[in-house]
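User: Predict the structure for this protein chain, please.
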Amino acid sequence: MKVWANIEIPLKTYTVHLDHDLCSYVTEMKQRIELGWKKQQGTSIPLEEGALDIYDTCYKEKLTFIVCSN
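Assistant: Here is the predicted structure, written as structure tokens:
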């Protein structure tokens, strides 16, 4: 399973979109990138555990962890 991790430093959030292929937010971000928008802090991560590891290692003390409800 792939997840999309969206890191929003100004909002102090780290949002994981578990339903990578069906999430409307991820679909919109992919379309913007294809149109030439600069990719910001979103990235595709192979496993949910990988997203959690990155959060624990880099952002745990700085950002709020959120799981997308889509």
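Strands lie at 3-8, 13-17, 42-45, 64-67.
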